[in-house]
Design a protein that fits this description.
It is a single chain. The chain is an alpha+beta fold and 153 residues long. 48% of the residues lie in helices and 18% in strands. The chain is built from seven helices and seven strands, in the order βαβααββαβααβαβ. It has helices spanning 13-22, 37-50, 54-60, 73-84, 98-104, 115-124, 135-147; strands spanning 3-4, 34-35, 64-66, 69-71, 88-94, 127-133, 148-150. It has a three-stranded antiparallel β-sheet. Strands 1-7 form a two-stranded antiparallel sheet. Helix 1 (13-22) packs across helix 7 and helix 2 crosses helix 3. The relative contact order is 0.22.
């Protein structure tokens, strides 16, 4: 179990999600954006499987194998709830390369029923979602992240 300074344990998968969005990214910058739902889902899945954060994620995220990796509808629900609370903002950009394009239509592939629909999906889903904390979310993320004293990886 993760140790915390204030005696407050992480309470939910949503706390872990905010801490993940606050944690230093590939460049070492706090609150670095996460590009794409596939990457976000994979990071949460790895936290669930390989760290003590799994106990919080196990209760809330039911991951299933999917086209490009683990998928949990609950991640979408919690991102939406965090957006509604003003903690997370999601923007979309044009996908830059094929890996991002695959991410952009990972979910859409399930609704395709014929070749015409596939072409429409390909044309309309060249956008990539980018997830980042708002200023308010950064304050909450800092609080959560700073209270986690030790991580068992």
């Amino acid at each position: 179990m993760s140790q915390v300074k204030s005696g407050r344990l992480l309470e939910s998968g949503m706390d872990v999600l905010v801490a993940l969005l606050y944690a230093p990214g590939a460049t070492g910058k706090l609150g670095e954006e996460i590009r794409g739902i596939t990457r976000l889902e994979k990071l949460l899945y790895l936290l669930k499987r390989e760290t003590t954060f799994g106990e919080y994620l196990e209760k809330e995220y039911k991951f299933e194998p999917y086209h490009y990796g683990p998928y949990s509808v609950e991640v979408f629900d919690q991102i939406e709830a965090l957006e509604d609370a003003g903690l997370v903002e999601t923007t979309t950009v044009e996908a830059k390369h094929s890996v991002e394009m695959y991410d952009a239509f990972q979910i859409e592939l399930d609704v395709v029923t014929d070749d015409t629909s596939l072409e429409i999906v390909k044309q309309e889903t060249r956008k990539l979602s980018i997830y980042r904390l708002t200023d308010k979310g950064m304050k909450v993320g800092k609080y959560i992240f700073s209270n986690v004293e030790e991580l068992d990886f």
